[in-house]
Write a structure and sequence with these properties.
Elements: E1 3-7, E2 10-13, E3 18-25, E4 32-38, E5 45-50, E6 57-59, E7 67-72, E8 77-82, E9 91-98, E10 111-112, E11 116-121
Parallel strand pairs: 2-11
Antiparallel strand pairs: 1-3, 3-8, 4-5, 4-9, 5-6, 7-8, 9-10, 9-11
Length: 122
């Protein structure tokens, strides 16, 4: 069973930066990792995903050019660098893992972290 633990959230002013970290344990090899987020009263939405090798990534249009997803295979860790943060980025951010083809659909990710709060003040 893959287990995921997020860290690095917090409160930041608009225009600031944060880096989220997700550490994986269990049979992690070969997995595709992703970040999703859920704002109050809204559905959980896709943010970014990265392949096992780190050679390919995909982003939601709302974060392109501001967020960067990366991974360190040796540390079983995935990162989400968030720059130029906006108040609308405020949400609980979740790390997720799946095996197989790339997907931006939350329903296809069977493994989830507990989530971490990111709050961007205006």
């Amino acid at each position: 069973q893959v287990q995921l633990v997020e860290s690095g959230g917090g409160l930041v002013q608009a225009g600031g930066s944060l880096r989220l970290t997700c550490v994986a344990s269990g049979p992690f090899s070969g997995s595709r990792m992703a970040w999703f987020r859920q704002a109050p009263g809204k559905d959980r939405e896709f943010v970014a995903t990265i392949s096992w090798s780190g050679g390919s990534a995909d982003y939601a249009d709302s974060v392109k050019g501001r967020f960067t997803i990366s991974r360190d295979g040796a540390k079983n860790t995935v990162y989400l660098q968030m720059n130029s943060l906006k108040p609308e980025d405020t949400a609980v951010y979740y790390c997720a893992a799946k095996f197989g083809v790339i997907s931006t659909s939350k329903s296809l990710y069977p493994h989830w972290g507990q989530g971490i709060q990111v709050t961007v003040s205006s």
